Structures are given as structure tokens and as C-alpha cells.
Amino acid sequence: WLTRKRRKPHVKQHTHSSIQRWLAASAAEHIQISHATGDPSSLLFSSSVSYRSPGQRSSERPLRPTRPLRSLPSPPRGPPRSSGTRPPRQKRQGEGNAAAAMAAMEAAADAMLAAASRAFCSSVAVFFQIQGCCICLLLAFGWAVASLVRKKEIRKMRRKMASGHSFAFLCDDVDELEHSVQQKLPMVSVVMPLKGFGEHNLQNWRTQITSLYGGPLEFLFVVESKDDPAYRAVSRLIVEYKDKLDAKVVVAGFSTTCSQKIHNQLIGVEKMHKDSKYVLFLDDDVRLHPGTVGALTKEMEKNPEIFIQTGYPLDLPSGSLGSYCIYEYHMPCSIGFATGGRTFFLWGGCMMMHADDFRQDLYGLVTALKNGGYSDDMTLAAIAGQHKRLITSPPVAVFPHPLASDLSFSRYWNYLRKQTFVLESYVSKVNWIMNRALFGVHFYLSWGFVCPYVMALVHIATTLRAPYSAIVKEAAGSSCGLKLVSFLLICTLTELVSMWNLTRVEIQLCNMLSPEGPQDSLRSYNWGLVFVAVLVDNFLYPISAIRSHFSQSINWSGIRYYLRDGKISKIERENSSKYTDLGGKHLYGKKTYPAGKSLLGYLSISLAQWHQPKKYDV
Fold first, then answer.
1. In a designed cystine with 462, which of 29, 117, 222, 566 is the match (CB 3.0 to 4.6 A)?
2. What is the pLDDT of residue 10?
């Protein structure tokens, strides 16, 4: 009990001293807060706080704290802290999570890149890459052979000119220009279906009607209606040359059972002169050489077994990607037309045939064209192949084809759709099988050409990423990607050089065949865009072919055609289209007087020739 009695005061003293120290510390903190905030209330409170233990006099000062006081953070003043200060804990955690996520994504991307690099070095992938290189070399070889055929004609013309034959661009033998020989030449009717009026039409028409063919020649410009701007423009052109040529404008009306072009061609054949021995179908968007009609007629006279003579255009890109895609699309086909003789290909822009074949409806070709025909050249080529008839292409039958300066990519896409839509039309079961085979081969080769470049991008990305990633470095070290890329680069350069060479030779040949016409140049070609167009066109062709197969319809120059069983079953005319898709020709326009003439002069001409329509302003 005594022990417990003595311990009680000790416990009380210890408790009182602890309470005093706590109160003293609290008072000191209030004093610091009052100095920091300037609030005197906390100072009064701290000065009034005291605790007296039992037995302590009231005059004694409160105990001071025996331990150092922690400094309190000063309260915020004014606006909140800027973002440059230390971020809160949540923000630091968010940044850490974002960094971890980025690291995980980077690791996943490296893993995918390494896996793709290994996959593209497998035996199957290597086969496809070597196959793409072989396609490049095959195209380069074909263009090299075509350039040799065209260059042979250039050398022959130069030898003739060196020997004194200044008119070698018209004929091989100067004796053919004798009046007695010219009088025996057969009559030729030139039928040109027109649609719209564009920036190059006047120049093209002038080259077509100023032919230096010595025999009888008539021109039939066929339009669907007088509201077509081409009607007014070509009528004024005929008035300008009325004393120098036999030409007229024929209004064919709207087609109901076939394409508008075929309808215009058949109406032109019906209106041609009864003494015409040959009929030449021309598109209005190509420039003809002065001796083209004579060269084609000479071959037809030399070999009566020829069913159709044809040629092919040389596209002159305007600078847009769409125009280069069209140029690239035509270049592989030009190989089949540069044979200098027999060919299996046919281009509807230039076709010379026997006029009696249409008068007699030989092989039912008029019936096949009129009843549901969509493509003139594919239909006639199918008939020629079915009956084993001869199609030839002279080496001089290459024509400059200037493309519209405003040819957009969407118009190129619709042109590609039109070209693939042709494969959906057919006149017989054999023609259908040939179109399906052409569809499959072109489909396979197009994407087979593009795939190696996609794989090459993966190999290049693997090489560039290897120094910064161990897994990618391991994949790059164990693959043959760079070797494949190097081989593809060599094949691509070979292909582009061969394409450049053929284009150069054909431009040179066209300039020699038209010495008085506008001289074309290779300097306007952008070969960087040519390479891009090669990839774009080959990538889009299968997509366009698939869409054409499932849609079975196409809108071309404001007219929508529907196919059923390979023939046109329905035609809808849409007036919303203002321009043709390829040539950029105006389908509708406003009347105005010609540039360079006064209003009074224009009114006087119109009064004198009131029956002639005005020219459309382009």
C-alpha cells in the first residue's frame, strides 16, 4: 500500500508535465501561424493558454517546449501554384502509368516488327518478292522490245530523209505521191463520235481533218443532240474549213439499247458515203498525224485479209496524280500494240475496217454492237478472235493523247472503273471465259506486283529500328531482308528506265510524224509521280474490278449503264455531271462570242450564217 501510495503522486506529476509540454507546443505553433498569417486571434489564444498543476502558483510562467518545433507550411496566397512546381502524387502516378503504357506499346510494336520481318523472310514470302521482281523485269523487257520496233521506224524515216525523201513522214516511197497513184486510192469515211467539249478538242479535230490523204475522204462528226457543246464547236470548225474538206455533223439521238458511243458509230456508218471502201473510227481526244489515214489504208490494200487495223495512244500527263495513273495504266498495254504487225489487242480510239463488213453485218457484228453492246473494241476483238480474223497495228500508229489539266483523282478512279467494267460485258460464252481469265490474271499480277514493296518497307523499318531494340536487332541479323530490298530496287530502276526509254522513243516518233504540229517533250514527265502511280494503279485495279463485278453498273459522262448477262439492260441519264471523266470536257456550258472578235463582228457573222450555232466558251 505504501508503495502504491508513493507512486500515485509520481504518476500525477508525470501526467501533468506531459500535458504542460503539449500545451506549450500548441501555443508555440499558434504563435508561428499568427506571425505567418497576420491573424492576432491565434496569438491571443496562445498567450491565454496555460495550465497549472496542483500546487503551482498562478504567477509561474508556463513551461516551454523542450523539443524543436516542426515548421508548418505557409498557407497559399493568391492564385494556385503553377504547373512547374512539384506535381501531386496522382499526377506523378498518371505519368508513370503513361510511360509504362508507352513502353509496353513500344515493346509490342518491336515484337510485331520482328515477327513480320521473320515472316517476310519465309520461303513463301521470298517467292512472292522474287515474283514481283520478275514482273518488273518482264515489263522492262516488253517495253525494250516495243522501243526497238518504234526505233526501227525512226531509223527508216531518217534514212529516207537523208536520201532526199522529205515526205518520209507521209509514205515510204516518194513515187506514192504521184498524182496517178493518188487518184487510185479508195474512199475512206472517218466517223468520230463526240461528247462534250474540252480544252484539247479543237487542236485534236484540226489534226484529224487536215489529213494529207490523197484519196477521197469524208468526215462524219456524230453527236447525240444539238444541245451537246461539241455540236456548236465542231460546226464552226467545219464552216472554217468548208472549202477544203467534205465534213458534216450528224445528230444521232439518244441510245436505248447500247452505249452512246456505239450508237453514234452505227449512225455514222449508216450516213457514210455509198462509195466508201473503208471506215475509220476515231476518238475525239487524240491527235492524228498527217499521214495516218494513208498508212492505214496502204496496209489494208496490201493485205485484204486484215479485219481491223488499230493503234494506241501515248498519254501526255498534265501533272496530277490521276493523269500519271492513266499513263501508267496504258503503258503495259502498249506492249501489245508495238508489234509492227499482228496483234490480239484492239483500241477503240483508232479502228479501220472494211465498210462492207458493216453493210452486210458480217459475223453479226452490227447486231452484237446494237443489241446491248457496251464496249466497241472488246466486242469487235471478241468477234475477230472467234472467227480467227486478223488484227494488225502498224508501227506508225501511235498518237499523242493530251490529258486534261484538271484531271482529278476521282475522275481517274471512275475511268478505272469503266475499264474494269468492260470485262463484265461479253457477246458469247467464249468471250465470257476470256474476260474471266483476263480478270483473274490482271488481278493476281497487280497485287503480286505491289506486295514486294510492302514487304520491302517492313525490311527497311527493321533495319532502321535494329540499333534501338534487341529483339528487332536479332530478327534483322537472322533475315535476308536487305538483300531482297536491294534486288527489288535494281528491278524497279530497270523497269522505270525501260519505261522512260519507250516514252522517249514514242515522243520522238510522234514529233517526226507531225513535223508541223506541236512538238512534245519528255521534260514534262515527273518520274517520281510515275513510280507512285505504278503502285497506286496496281493496288486499285483489283478493288475496282471487284466493285465493277458486284455493282454491274457504271456512270460515264452523265449516263449510267446497267448490265445483265453481259449486255446493257438499262440506261439512265443523269444531268448532274458537268464534265466528262477523262477528258475534262464540258457537257453543258453557256453561250458567248469567240475570244479575239468584237461583239459587232460576231453579230454580223451570226446574221450572215444564222443557221450555224455559236461556239461554247471553255
1. 117
2. 47
| DSSP string covering 86-148 | PPPHHHHHHHHHHHHHHHHHHHHHHHHHHHHHHHTTSHHHHHHHHHHHHHHHHHHHHHHHHHH
- What span, in angstroms and rounded, lies between the C-alpha atoms of 100 and 98? 5
The residues with which 190 forms a beta bridge, in sequence order, are: 219, 280
Helix (H, G, I), strand (E, B) or coil at 309: strand
Q: Could you confirm whether domain 125-573 is CATH 3.40.50.510?
A: no
SS3 369: helix
Nearest to 556, CA basis, from 584, 583, 576, 581: 581
The closest of 345, 341, 320, 319 to 332, measured between CA atoms, is 345
What is the domain partition of the chain in residue ranges?
125-573
- What pLDDT is attached to residue 201? 87
Q: 188 Cβ partners below 8 Å, 6+ apart?
A: 213, 215, 216, 217, 218, 276, 277, 278, 279, 280, 293, 297, 352
Beta-strand runs (E) in 424-508: none
Run means of pLDDT, 10 residues per run, the chain, 618 residues: 41 50 56 50 43 46 48 50 55 72 84 87 92 95 94 92 87 85 92 89 88 91 92 91 87 93 95 94 90 93 94 91 93 89 90 95 93 92 92 92 88 92 88 89 92 92 86 79 91 96 95 88 91 94 93 89 92 67 50 38 38 34
Q: Whose grid coordinates read 509540454?
A: 21
* Per-residue burial over 41-67, b = 16 or more CB atoms within 10 Å of its CB, e = otherwise: ebbeebeeebeeeeeeeeeeeebebee
